[in-house]
Amino acid sequence: MNKKKISIVAVSAVVIVSLGLGFNSIFKKANTLETDNNDTVVSDQSIETGDELNTEEAKVDKTETKKENKENKKNEDTTDSSGNSNENTSKSTKTDGTETKKPNNDEVEKTDNSSEKPKPSNNEKPKPGNSSEKPKPSNNEKPKPGNSSEKPKPSNNEKPKPSNNEKPKPGNSSTKPKPENNQTITSPKPKNKTVTIAISCKTAINNGLNKKPGFSHLPSNGIILQNMKVEFNEGDTVFDILVKVTRKKGIHMEYRGSGSNTYIEGINNLYEFDGGSNSGWMYSVNGVYPNYGVGAYKVKSSDVIKFNYTCNLGADLGARAN
Prior knowledge:
single chain, 322 residues, alpha+beta, 4-stranded mixed beta sheet, 3-stranded antiparallel beta sheet, 38% helix, 12% strand
């Protein structure tokens, strides 16, 4: 009985140990599988990220190549348009009647080749700031002022210039007569006021005074001063006129008094009382002998003044006192 129990216990122990070893190996395999799965997941993720980066780079390269292709097409279009514009300008110049030389094909090819820029490779990325890939303006864009060679010359249908029949602008009229260099425009001067004066001693000559000693200087016709016009100023008197004339002609004259009391004593060395007790000098204005002194009579324009020598208190002169 004891041997059977021992054998049973031993078998059960062996079974238990074998089971434990089996379970332990199973657990180890499970752990290794989990680590392997984790490693595969990590590698898969890294592969996926690498693939994503590669796809993004491929996309960027594709977009860059597309841009480059577009720019190249635009450059070719602009060169074609410039060629067309040159042809158009040459045609327009022909229509205007002026001859211009057509550009040679070799020159156009040179310009086209010179305008073509080297294409960057697909793998190269353009550096910022040095990009030569700016799109050129197309034919539809507005040309910059000052640099456009595509302006058509004005045709013969331009607006006609204004003819000479236009109305002259005010202030710039060329029909206005200009004064000649020698022509001087002078306003008429106002006429000066004048009077006429004369001096005579005919009565003394008629009485033979010139034949007496000391009077031979008297003129035989008795005229000491013929009629003479004299300018005067406003307010001048008969005495002022007599002074101007005698000084100008150098004729002797003496007087006494002043103002309205001025009295003429002698003219041409012929004094009062030389021809008798009633002799002396008298004056008349416009044929009338005033009854006041020469210094009180103010002259007017065109007055006629006469100084006459009398031998009989003016009766021999036909004097009419006023």
